[in-house]
Input
Amino acid sequence: MRKDLRIKLPAGSGFHTRALEKACAEVLKVPLNTISHVRLCRLSLDARPKIPCYEALVEVYTAPDRYEEPAYHFEMKKAAASKKQAGVIVVGMGPAGLFAALALCHAGVKVTLLERGKKVDERAKDVGALCRDGRLNIESNYAYGEGGAGCFSDGKLYTRSNKRGDIGRVMRTFVHYGADPAILYQAHPHLGSDRMPAIVRRMREALLAAGAEIRFSTCVKEILTDRKGHFAAVVDRNGVEYKGDALFLATGNSADDLYRYLHGKGMALQEKPFAMGVRIEHPQEAINAMQYKGAEKRYALPPAEYSFVEQSGGLGVFSFCMCPGGVVIPAATQEDGLVVNGMSGSGRRSPWANAGWVAGVDRAILRQNGIRLPEHPLALLDFQQRTEKSFFTPGRGFAAPAQRLTDFLKERTSASLPRSSYSPGVFSADMREYLPGFIAEALHDVLGRISQKKKGFLTQEALLLGLESRTSSPVRILRHEENLQHPQMAGLYPCGEGAGYAGGITSSALDGLNCAESYLRDRGLDCNFAL
Output
């Protein structure tokens, strides 16, 4: 017999399999030895009660029934040489590109991957040089390179994108390539930037074993079509041509040169709302105390998180990409622009916590605040880049303007700054002089209200750093709703966050899978990858 149950376990008792089995037997009122298997489907921590408790959604099997693990399909076929099949070109090796390539190779399709950045191990050295010495490699950084932006900026897998498809496929794939199986049931699954590189490396090895061709440090300069307007080939910056019968554009949301190229060719693009603001960094102890209210001193609890969604004069303001036990990182892709992001390792052991605090930006909001944009689809992208450049201070490298939260709310420049995890350094500044006025006002309003409602949020050690601007793409590359191809170029599949159809690792991976399946369906090929 199988039963679906919701079980609560006090955090003080510790969470382990035996305790879960015992709790299930008590709820079902059966002897413990009749429990043949407990499958943990979802696990979350509720810190609201006086004694925090784990909440578990489980499937319980009692004798004589037994649980049988489903057989999922990850094996990939070696692509057979075929004159009829030119194969698929995948541009970008972030989640969308990697998962699309895995699904295509699984079906026996010949795949060529082109990545403007470096292999994940070499990329790690460039990221280190940026943090340590302020040396930016514009083609190998926190945004560009094997694994995509999420590889070195936290590896969070939490998403609300259930409508895009089976999230479990993405989680199972990560586990297959070395992720902790706990991500299959965690309410907020997290891989960690320290573990992501090894997972990405195993994916690359599997693709190579299936016959995929991979070219790093290869940036696409031109897209060619045949006489009928169907995709035919791409050309890189060195003039090398790569032919294929389909092109998957999975370049991530920082590839502004791609947007400008497509716009110059007259390809259908659309501006897309995004969000902009700051990172706020607290001591992790302050967030623990705020969320656990002292329980963290009595029980072994994980580093606390928070999430806020507020309104200020009709403008949405929300916390974003919360990184407990994390650090703030330099995420710039241009020498004269400043962008920050957050990350945390799998253990979340840093003494700091940080999160983006951003406000929505679109054409109507800018117009309401006296900012007029030209009528073209890259106008929001231009606004984003102008603001990033305004945060960059020549002579200071990638040091970030910063302000204590207490001083921001009192509208004064900080006389001194607390320690920060941001390795390029911070300098005291009035964030109102850097942020667009309407964003500064909205943040001032919302942060003031949060500080009154949540004891411990307002502290001398809380620090605002800017600019947080790469929340999502400000441009969407249009595609048909049914076949996911661009309306002006058959065979072109815009996918992932850079194309404007995702907002993180999991949703990007799902979008890559969806595009791959659309391509395979058109050719009468089956796709049961990770099913």
